[in-house]
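Internal ticket #5521
Category: modeling
Description: The requester needs a full-assembly model to guide mutagenesis choices. All entity lines are attached below as received. Residue total reported by intake: 734.
Assigned to: D.W.
Attached entities:
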Amino acid sequence: MTDYAIRLRGVTKHFGDHVAVEDLDLDVPRGTICGLLGPNGSGKTTSIRMILGIYVPDGGTVELLGGPPDHEHRRRVGYLPEERGMYKKMRVLDHLAFIGELRGVRSSDGRRRGGEWLERLGLSEWADRKVEDLSKGMQQKVQFVATVLHEPDLLILDEPFSGLDPINQDVLEAIVRELNARGTTILFSTHLMDQAERLCRRVCLISRARKVLDGDLREIRAAEDRGDVAVEFDGDAGWLDIPEIETAEREEDGWHLRLRDDVPPRVIVERALASGIELRRFERVAPRLHEIFIRHAGAEAAAEAGRPTDVRVAEAVR
Amino acid sequence: MKSAVFPIIKREYLERVRSRWFIIATLAGPLLFIGIAVLPVLTMGSSGPSELVVVDRTARLLSTVQPGLEAAGYAVTPVADAAAAGTDPVADHTRRIQDDEIFGILVLDSATLATGRARLTVANALSPIREMALRQVIAQGALVTRLSADAPEVIGLLAGGTLDVEVLDDEVEVEGSDFILAYLGAFLLYMTLLFYAVAVMRSVLEEKTSRIVEVILSSVRPVELMLGKILGVGAVGLTQLGIWAVSFVVLADVGLPRLMEARPELATLREFASVAPTAGQLLLFLAFFLGGYFLYSSLYAAVGAMANSDQEAQQAQAPLVILMIVPAVILPGVLENPESTMAVWTSLVPFFAPVLMFARAVSGWASGAEVAVALAGIAVTTVVVAWIGGRIYRVGILMTGKRPSVRQLWRWVRTG
């Protein structure tokens, strides 16, 4: 057994003239939660489909749970696609049992486990109802249950939180953490950077079919840390016009300051005291993922990434 | 390793067989058959009393008119001419007619013999059809009576004559019932093939448009999904046909004799029982259903995979519909002239064979060799079509956006 749940080496996929994924290397160590981040159309879903053997890459190698992405290995994976479908006319528990059976779970076991999950998610009374009778939020929970029913070693979730209300997002996040604590490796894709920051230990940023950056999230942030500080104070902001500060940006609750290289943050406190300014807040700010992404992929790619969330929700509903 | 095909077959089968639609359609088949076969006879027999009192004043007409009346469903009660006794038989029976005890009283006299004019007394007005039928029976009887006295040799002409056909150089003997069977069977084949092939297409399309297919393909190969679907839907088709066959046999062998015992006037139904197919004919039906089903469902699965919506699927299946309609359209011609070059060759074309070769074989015009060639042709074509269809399916099932052009389809087939 290797230490990696997923290993991609030089993976490339073209659709006609369109380059979907170019020369992608990706390592997902077992037992981690890894985020695959990038704007829409950057190649996340295509990469995931190649990991699962749904698409055959034009070049490069895919290693899934220590082997090729064949039937034997794919059965140990739980996959929740971005566009999730269900058999609308099937009963909820029948649906769960069927998906489980495709992955080698006996029908009776699937029904039992499905019942347990439904109970946990407060959907017990819906077990014998038709899928089409459920609300969209309920359907998404049932889809998630179908994904984890066969107790997979690796969970691949494509934009799992899109279209979920905040309460259900929290429920899902808690379950993802719990499954990870029990040893399940998790790869999930998202275009929401703050979600990734909350959940992931590792991240892989991709933009326009290419990988921009990947690694341990804490290490990345440490490496990208430029000693930015956030301050809040009363009175005139004229004292910020000093050579040690490269840029000062007004935020709703204070100022975000970028310091010139080799300027230690305490200089700001000294300057404030010298100018007779009473600081109400002073803190070191680690760089946000979004910022790191812009730094590496460029503002143009970031503009693509900056598509507002509600547009995507509208798409999901449609 | 356990294949994922089985759960797919199971789901497809159970979901369909449990559906309200399946239960209704399966029951509707035999009911429709009963309706077509029994209802007309029942309604004919149930329209009031059938006893007809006949007074024959010529003393010659009754023997020639009575069989015709009985064939038309009347129970004939001859009464002696009471004119000599000074009573009017019509007046005697009027009360019974009014009380609906008997249908009516028919008086045949010399005028009947001369011009075909007779007198009928009934309670209610006759329908034009009934009146015409009675008139014909009486006139025919008068004609036969007169001719048998003057020129008995002409009577045969009245009955429509007979044709003794002497066939040289032919061992085929065609029964009329086989001809009916060929017609009905071929039509049933056409309907069920089209229906179940389209069911496969709809099922593929549903999985594609609802996006469930991506979940399934993460643990199942496309070819397994397609195969499971075709086998599952096919099993539903066989179940339905099986139920129909069993209920037909039960109806013809048990139901009809009982019914005719209870209601002797329904004797005409015996003809339906004689149409019951033999085991060999059922086997032919099964073989051509399976062959045609696999051939067409592979094509329709590919069509479902390349479409993105019902409308697109409707357009894309147009060529296939034409392919299926052609045999249905030329079927009457083929049955009328089953040995013509056109009939032989079209019935050997794999796409037409399920309907046409079946019809020719059941009606007794196709040799065993021809049937074997047709089935082999269907099998070979199915393999080719399934291979091509499978490749289109594999690519198309995950494709969304514009419908592919023919050139794109060709690329899918090549690179699959």
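Resolution: model delivered.
Comment from assignee: Residues 306-318 of chain A have pLDDT under 50 and may be disordered.
Ticket closed.
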